[in-house]
Amino acid sequence: MSQTSLDDDELFADAADEMRTDVEASLGEAREALPEGDDVWELDADNTLGALNALKDALDVGDAEDHLRDAKKWYTMGERADAFEDADDLAEAIEEIEDLIEDVEGAREQVGDLTSTVPQLRSTLEDFGEEEAEEESESESDADTDADGDAEEAEA
């Protein structure tokens, strides 16, 4: 084997190690960018809408998607170059983080839907309560009028 091919093999091994390190680093950064469990569980809010908005903010995946994309990019390059001796752990970690990001984004979307639905529901319930109160007031007023009419007839 010539000196050049030995150097090429060493360079390839170094590049493969660097790719693995880059994938692992990007996966670590993706994990760090995801929200903490307590951030999603414990919220400071005065009302339901405030809680929903705080939850929606807490469910932001931040730069996790970008870091995952970097990890996938370097992983794909390494796989295609057959640079990794054993990359099953990387593939599993990528899939795990990808699934978690999808779950968090799905939850954020559902909270976003509630954020727009709850104020509408509140308004509808308030309108319904006002209509019901008006109907009761009118019924009482009509009953009073009928009672007054009956009393006038009895006097006559």
Automatic annotation (TrEMBL):
Alphabetized InterPro entries for the sequence: DUF5790
Biased composition (Polar residues): 113-123
Highest rank taxon of the organism: Archaea
A Pfam family it matches: DUF5790
Region (Disordered): 109-156
UniProt biased composition (Acidic residues): 127-156
Name the record gives this protein: Uncharacterized protein
Taxonomic lineage from the root: Archaea, Methanobacteriati, Methanobacteriota, Stenosarchaea group, Halobacteria
